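U., I forgot to send this yesterday:
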Amino acid sequence: MRALDRKLLRELWRLRGQALAVAIVIASGVAVLVMSLSTLEALQATADAYYERYGFADVFASAVRAPRTVADRIARISGVQSVETRVTRYATLDMPGFAEPVIGRLISIPENGEPTLNRLVLRSGRWIEPHRHDEVLVNEPFAEAHGLVPGSQFSALINGRRRTLSVVGTALSPEFVYALGPGALMPDDRRFGIVWMGREALEAAYDLQGAFNDLSVAMLRGADVAAVLNGVDRALEPYGGFRAIARNDQISNWFVMNEIEQLKTMSTVLPTIFLAIAAFLTYMVLMRLIATERSEIGLLKAFGYTNLEVGWHYMKLVIAIAVVGIAAGSALGAAFGLHNTRLYADFFRFPVLIYRPSPMAFLVAALVSVGTTSLGAIAAVRRAARLP
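Result:
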């Protein structure tokens, strides 16, 4: 072992308290950075897998009343892959044991089979049976808020008529990861819920036989979104159509993607604070060390060590401290990332969870931390190298 390397080990042991403090600060910055990047990757991968697996639509539109033949014309628009029509309305629900009014969004589903788009994740119970107009599925958060299980019943005011509905199952949908009621700013599962009913039942209740008032479209890969939106708007305009929106503007997806954008901001701001403090502490430790070793530095140069060798000796001291912080921070960041991702998955009710931190997250954290602490040490190292 070279003399300078033995000197480095002695200095690390002598400065173990200060070195440990700097390493802890570096580890904190690395942990936050790895946690943010791994959570960001996991959330994006989980949302993409959920949307793809359950056929989340690319375009959403609604009208007052449009015949089903309009859907055939929309299906022929360039870039459209498939079209799903349905009937949807808001209704007042009377929940047992809950005195306040509850708003429910009634959405039709096929009575034989599953929808083509925006498919449901059946969480408990069974699918509705054909021609059973009183059977419904409800979204899982709403069911949990009111203690609904398969076999429960509640009343609904549908088109001015009171009806008793029987819950046969609970479900989730990629369309309602973030379920907001009319005019609400935050989800309220006690006052707003999604209720899926057979199409025949809703068509009869709202006099929409052979018609629809809501439309979902899946597009081909690489299709022109603006052209599809314009085509859908033109097709629905004679039937009281409202402006079609792309997936990016769909309210639930917008909130999910906005949360991901906030994570990107957090992955920039918080680690920067910790690593800036680490750079400052590194500078202070090195300046004090160099000030007390002026005579030793002079002696090293008298024995023939060059400025570069002396400077690299002190730089290795900084890198050694940074390596300890990076190792500890990476392990903590991966654990925190998994915990954080599970919290998001529980909040958004993702039925799937994908957490596979990529090596890039750890590599970025390592490069950023080493680069930051090295920048903080450069001034002190240059001073050591310039001593006569």
